[in-house]
Amino acid sequence: MNPALQDIIQREIVVKAPKQRVYTAITDPKQIIAWFPDSVEGSLEVGERPLFTFEGHGTVQLYVVDAKPYDYFAYRWIPGAGSEDFRGDVRTVPNTLVEFRIEEISEGTKVTLTESGFSSLPSDVAEQKFKDNSGGWEYMMDRLEKVLAEK
């Protein structure tokens, strides 16, 4: 573990959409493709290991850790480029935890994305994966916000 490396990415958005709609946009394979991966193979149920395909960037294996409708959803994956080579249980190799927390507030619904565990990744790739995903989550959360504003 590299203590000097930043370990956590966090992004927040506030949308004028009910919690149920936000949760569904994050957890329904038919809806998540509107803002995040280009395709999903498999289920986003707890204990499942779906594949997310990102055109031009490959396919990534996930492990769904937890789902608490309409408040919380979490999965583990191997972040960034190069992760498309791995197939299997991502819990058996260095990975990060991606969490979505959904909360009603006076302005609407707050969605907090947290990805943690970068300091547990191999030191030769950890810093670059943190940098790549920092920008990536900024882009993806902006897309989620736009998708939720459409309806």
How would the blueprint of this fold be written?
Blueprint: E1 8-15, H1 19-27, H2 29-32, E2 39-41, E3 51-54, E4 58-68, E5 72-77, E6 96-105, E7 108-116, H3 123-150
Task: Describe the fold and architecture.
- The chain has a single domain (8-150), classed as START domain (Alpha-D-Glucose-1,6-Bisphosphate, Chain A, domain 4).
- The protein is 27% helix and 34% strand.
- The radius of gyration is 15 Å and the shape is globular.
- The protein is of the alpha+beta class and 151 residues long.
- The longest helix is centred in the last third of the chain and has 28 residues, at 123-150.
- The protein is built from three helices and seven strands.
- A seven-stranded antiparallel β-sheet has the order 1-7-6-5-4-3-2.
N- and C-termini, Cα separation = 44 Å
Estimate what percentage of residues fall within beta strands.
Answer: 25-35%
Question: H/E order of the elements?
Answer: EHHEEEEEEH
Assign the CATH architecture. 2-Layer Sandwich
Low-confidence stretches: none
Shape: globular
Q: Identify the strand order in the major beta sheet.
A: 1-7-6-5-4-3-2
The radius of gyration is: 15 Å
The level of helicity is 25-40%
Number of helices: 3
| Major β-sheet annotation | 7 strands, antiparallel
Just give the CATH class.
Alpha Beta
Overall number of domains: 1
* CATH topology-level name: Alpha-D-Glucose-1,6-Bisphosphate, Chain A, domain 4
Q: Calculate the mean pLDDT score and round it.
A: 92
